[in-house]
Amino acid sequence: MLISHDDIPQVSQDFMNHTHSEEVTLINALFTEILAYEKNQNTTDTIDTMYQAWIEHTIEHFTTEEVEMMEAVFPAYPIHKEAHDTALKQMYEVFNAWKETREIKVLKTYLIEVVPQWFMAHVSTMDAMTANYIGGSITPSGAGMTRF
Ligand SMILES: [Fe+2]
Ligand SMILES: [Fe+2]
């Protein structure tokens, strides 16, 4: 397991916690398949399908948060949106590098060294503040938003 569900930072909006939990399940499942692939226990097709499913879930995840921010007129929307766009771009870049090279190390390194750290930092800062704003528990300054 790459990320423990118990370690996911909880925010004040349940729909976001639910999505984050689903995302961690997909990341962990992909990581398991990456380790299996290293031992020649599955195929590139399996990895491709799971990675594609993770991308699709991430798009849905990010879009839902962005719509909520727009509806709530969240002042830090551009910063949060930019963080989503950058993360998604990197997901595609890594996926493309994997499809070009079929070097499993490309995926493994990304999943170990980038994804968990990014996910934890993003959820505990931008998502947490966004959830509080949507819930009406913070003022619309956007102060304290850091770029993760
Ligand atoms: Fe999120
Ligand atoms: Fe987010």
UniProtKB/TrEMBL annotation:
Residues 14-127 form the Hemerythrin-like domain. It comes from the Bacteria. Keywords: Iron, Metal-binding, Oxygen transport, Transport. It holds the Pfam family Hemerythrin. Coiled coil: none annotated. SUPFAM superfamilies: Hemerythrin-like. Transmembrane segments: none annotated. PROSITE patterns: HEMERYTHRINS. Belongs to the hemerythrin family. This is Hemerythrin-like domain-containing protein. The lineage of its organism: Bacteria, Pseudomonadati, Campylobacterota, Epsilonproteobacteria, Campylobacterales.
